[in-house]
Amino acid sequence: MRKNYVLDANILLHDPASIYNFADNTVVVPVSVLSEIDRFKKEMTARGYNARAVARLLDSLRDHQSLIDGVELPGGGRLRVHCDPERALAGGAIDGDLELLRVAHELKKADPQTPVVIVSKDINLRIRADVTGIRAEDYESDHVPLTDFERSDKSVTLPADEFQAFKDSGHHDITGNSLFPNDYVLLNTEAEKGSALARVSPDVSQMVALNVPKEGICGVRPRNKEQYYAIDALLSDDITLATLMGKAGTGKTLLAIAAALYSTLVQKRHRGVLICRPVVPLGRDMGFLPGDIEQKLQPWMRPIMDTLDFLLEAGGPIGGHRDSHSLERSGVVEVQPLAYIRGRSIANRYVVIDEAQNLTPLEVKTIITRLGEAAKVVLTGDPHQIDNPYVDSHSNGLVYLVNRLRHQPLTAHVVLVKGERSPLAELAADLL
After folding, report:
1. Strand partners, 154
2. What's the pLDDT tens digit per position in 145-162?
3. Same domain (yes/no): 122, 246
4. What phi, psi does 340 have (nearest 5°)?
5. Residue that finishes a domain, picked among 90, 110, 137
6. In angstroms, rounded to a whole number, what is the distance separating the alpha carbons of residues 338 and 370?
7. Would you give the DSSP letter of residue 265?
8. Residue 166 domain-assigned (yes or no)
9. Could you report the per-residue pLDDT of 335-378, keeping only the tens digit for each?
């Protein structure tokens, strides 16, 4: 049975192409929603970009058909803008939520046989709709089940002679296994105790031993098998995009930045490091900060500088650099908020995107498409630590990226499980 889906403004701001994801049903956009979206079109943010994208999309659809009467969509559905001319021309402020509920009830009254569903990311609106007799749902087309990312390795048991051959040669030919490019594998042997760590080659022809320096990287040595996997993914030439997920204290940011410095200053594979993070506050925002752009950004980028200083203290000076300020002044390390990355073309750099769980799918796409030749990008984050009110653990850019690219030959995904920051931090991450 066909349904009428009434979209809230936050759905279109989250995904301008959402109108195409409702199969053969009718998508209804109240004109009040367009007015609400119009308020954001001048913002130089992802939300402003999406607001402008919505306007361009609707304008292109009305070329040959009336939005009031309805426009045919490729999937067999129909898009209609609902407008009451008298209310639209009356002026004055209109409560967007109340208008959305009013439109839904009007549609239900006009056609009682066709179900009406409000689609919104506003939990309170969904509750209000439900108690007034209108079904309400979240937008789930881009939701990704987190259970898909609980582990980053698989276990394979080999005969004793094949296991020993892998230990001796560092590779083992694959036959008939359901493995994907750059999967991480825990190898066991049938005859005796022992295990080894391996990665599936990009062409899925063999399992190869991990590439982890015995001396560690910048004073950091892996403490568990997942960290071995992470360092291999961070340093492998075969992998140009790596994602690290894990709870607080598992070493995501530390390992990523250590690998970036090691690859740039020790292995000389890249000419510089670019470290970015979204500017999203934890808790109540302090408002405007004084000073120039560098002074304004200093509190947001301080965690990155702290990590750089820690690595230089733990591993000693690298390339003559003794502190984070030296790395930044020399141009080896560039620390920048993600708001300024649009339009750049980044080549021959090691790029680290920290706190990527606070990004939208569109922002992640924008970042990845900025990368040029000889560039490598690493995204770190924890889907359970989200401060951005416009995404959740199932719809943020990090899980979206992993879901779309995790089995591609150029990418690798690692889930860090064990906290290594301190016993207290591990206890808090597990129990609080």
Report:
1. 185
2. 666 566 668 899 888 889
3. no
4. -105, 15
5. 137
6. 12
7. I
8. no
9. 887 777 777 889 999 999 999 999 888 888 888 988 999 999 99
